Amino acid sequence: MPKIDNPTLEKELREIIARVTEIEPGEITLESRFVEDLGMDSMMALEILAAMEKKYTIQIPEEKLAQLRTLKDTISLAKEYL
Amino acid sequence: MIKDKVAIVTGGSRGIGRAIVLELVRSGAKVVFTYLKSDEAAAKLLDEIKELKGEAEAIKSDSREYSQAKKVIDGALAKFGHIDILVNNAGIIKDKALMFMEPAEWRDVIETNLTGYFNMAKACIVTMMKQKSGNIINISSVAGVVGTPRQINYASAKAGICGLTKSLAKEVALYNIRVNAVAPGYIETDMTKDLKYKENLLKMIPSGRFGAPEEVAKVVSFLASDRSGYITGQVIKVDGGLAM
């Protein structure tokens, strides 16, 4: 898999999060807190994880789920496995 | 209806667990069972399964340790690619009146009979959530429903299992994961063979006899199958009418 540049990764992950949470991408900042600000539940978190795994053909250990707190966290998590 | 499903059974080498392993194998499931001490019993059970032309694997593992529980689940996942059924069954007794019960005897029973169930359920829940299917069956006991003297450790753990079952059932129902408990009464196993006052106990059981491990196993296989598709969060007593 070719390396993805940061802006593309951010854009794609923001789109995944927007689709799952049904919130406009423009309203999701790097620092928006998934649970408190975006109303995310465990099912949505899992969907985001699964969507990332599928899109980038990577495997993220489930222990990392708790680290998915903001878009910023999600980007750094994705980078670890890309 | 369980054919080719992958099932994990803890404490599968003896007693009720052994009957559950055999019943699931006969129904066509691929079974991974754990045991802690009984190497010989585990080997014997594997031989028996081979004769039935069933598929099973025995893993020596202590579910009190989360890392060991996770290893069992990861191993099964690596081998079969999915996990459909978890039967939490491993349990011990250390019966004593409260005034004589040591804190260590309380802790041992809670750790094996309750924390062990938590560990196994936690270790496989994300897999089942991702699959959007799964089935967890926890073996409780009527002791946890009605209480038993000299068993406050055991009864507390078994009552805890009922709470775990109902809470988890609510938490994961939308993922198509069902969580139920089976609460056996007095069953003919090594655990009950040295019971005192058996005659008195028999008088309390409307059916007038102890149950057979297979009678518990059949309920477990029913809960593990699609025949019970709309049952979740329940504690099903298999006790000859003991606790009504």
Task: Describe, in short, the structure shown.
The complex is a heterodimer of chains A (82) and B (244). Chain A is mainly alpha-helical and 82 residues long.
Structure report:
The complex is a heterodimer of chains A (82) and B (244). Chain A is mainly alpha-helical and 82 residues long. Chain A has 3 helices and no strands. The longest helix of chain A is centred in the N-terminal third of the chain and has 16 residues. In chain A, 22% of the residues are buried. The mean pLDDT of chain A is 91. In chain B, helix 1 packs across helix 8 and helix 4 runs parallel beside helix 6. With 244 residues, chain B is an alpha/beta fold. At the A-B interface, helix 2 of A face helix 4 of B.
List the helices and strands and how they pair.
The complex is a heterodimer of chains A (82) and B (244).
Chain A: H1 6-21, H2 42-56, H3 71-81
Chain B: E1 6-9, H1 15-26, E2 30-35, H2 39-51, E3 55-60, H3 66-80, E4 85-88, H4 103-131, E5 134-139, H5 142-146, H6 152-172, E6 177-184, H7 198-204, H8 213-224, E7 235-238
Helix pairs in contact in B: 1-8, 3-4, 4-6
Q: Would you tell me which CATH topology of chain B applies?
A: Rossmann fold
Percent in strands of chain B: 15-25%
CATH level-four homologous superfamily name of chain B = NAD(P)-binding Rossmann-like Domain
The overall pLDDT average of chain B reads 96
Structural class of chain B, by secondary structure, is: alpha/beta
| Fraction of residues in H or I helices of chain B | 40-55%
N-to-C SSE string of chain B, H for helix and E for strand: EHEHEHEHEHHEHHE
The assigned CATH architecture of chain B is 3-Layer(aba) Sandwich
SSE pattern of chain A, N- to C-terminal: HHH
Brief descriptors of the model:
heterodimer; A: 82 residues; mainly alpha; Non-ribosomal Peptide Synthetase Peptidyl Carrier Protein, Chain A; 3 helices; globular; B: alpha/beta; Rossmann fold; 47% helix
